[in-house]
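Issue 218. Parser rejects a valid record. Input:
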Amino acid sequence: MIHFIQKLAFSFSMTVCTLMATAQTTTPTSAPLTKQADGTFVVNTTTLAEDVKGYRGTTPLEIYIKSGKIVKVEALKNQETPKYFIYIRKELLPKYEGLKVNKVKSTQIDAVTGATFSSKAVIENVNRGLDYYQKNYKKK
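Output the parser choked on:
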């Protein structure tokens, strides 16, 4: 009986390991541009700006756009220093809310003091995301 339970436990653990490995290797990356049911477009900059680095790495974003205006910009998982990146979330990202997509590049958005590298990376992510949106949104 003990031998049977050991075999069963081993089989179960192997199945769990296989499932975990499969889940990690088959998780699809987010499409750069999706449209929600309410008409809001969401631009994911993960692949659009993978060469743009902040202080410690990439700073991917999701940009929400409805009726030609930015509804919000959300930071995705990144490797930036949390105590500095919180300033980006509180001070920089909200500056985009309500701006017309075609006016963002002509609007002066300043970097956050103390988080300059991260700020510049976020600003470049927004610019690339909006460029992609303007070139591709009519196809959705």
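Fixed in the parser; the record now loads. Confidence is low (pLDDT under 50) at residues 12-28.
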